[in-house]
Design brief:
Layout lengths: L1 H22 L13 E9 L5 E3 L2 E2 L3 H9 L1 E4 L2 E5 L4 E6 L4 E9 L6 E6 L4 E3 L6 E5 L6 E8 L2 E5 L1 H10 L1 E5 L2 E8 L2 E7 L8
Parallel strand pairs: 1-6, 7-12
Antiparallel strand pairs: 1-2, 2-3, 4-5, 5-6, 7-8, 8-9, 10-11, 11-12, 13-14, 14-15
Length: 199
């Protein structure tokens, strides 16, 4: 058992060192890197934002933040990328979770700021939109926030109700819709008459 633990930590440290080197000069420009694919790691991001390596949760927040900084999405696949290698990982839902909401100003000047589970603050605007996905099984809506380069954060359910409280109705393309505004942009949730179905 101790040997397995040691092997697990060695493998994790090898991946971490490559990410650390890549991140040394500031936010890594992973969108500019196209290294050769080196296979998949036994790494997974659960739907609650927990990172797993060899099916064991990674309990070092600084390490999770480091890995998150070199995360890249290509189509439906996710990779940890450095200038010299690209390793595939699995993501159950979205790679991040929005866990806190801060509202700056209200009314027409309202701005929504979200903190993710890796302690990044993201200002919701036209470049970082909210989207609301209908859930056929539960009949509800699942909100997501665009974080960067096609990487999204699932917005926690409690924050969804905050967004509803901050929302309002507008006419869009001849239909009355309910949604929420931030930084001058409006993000529709559902037709105004149907909103109760999604609550």
């Amino acid at each position: 058992m101790a040997q397995d633990q040691e092997r697990r930590e060695d493998g994790l440290d090898t991946v971490a060192e490559a990410a650390r080197t890549a991140a040394r000069k500031g936010p890594p420009p992973v969108h500019l890197w196209n290294p050769p694919y080196c296979g998949d790691l036994d790494m997974r991001i659960g739907s609650d934002g927990t990172w797993y390596y060899l099916k064991t949760p990674i309990d070092r927040p600084a390490l999770v933040r480091l890995f998150a900084s070199v995360l890249k999405r290509e189509g439906d696949r996710y990779f940890l990328v450095t200038p010299v290698e690209k390793c595939g990982i699995r993501v159950d839902d979205a790679p991040f979770v929005a866990v806190e909401l801060r509202v700056e100003a209200f009314g027409p000047r309202q701005e929504l700021h979200f903190r993710t589970n890796v302690d990044d603050w993201v200002a919701c605007d036209a470049d970082h939109p909210l989207r609301f996905e209908p859930q056929p099984d539960s009949g509800g809506l699942k909100p997501y926030l665009h974080v960067r380069r096609d990487l999204w954060a699932r917005v926690k359910r409690a924050l969804f109700f905050d967004l509803v409280d901050l929302g309002g109705e507008r006419d869009l393309a001849g239909a009355r819709v309910f949604g929420v505004a931030s930084a001058g942009a409006f993000f529709p949730m559902a037709p105004a008459d149907d909103l109760q179905e999604f609550m």
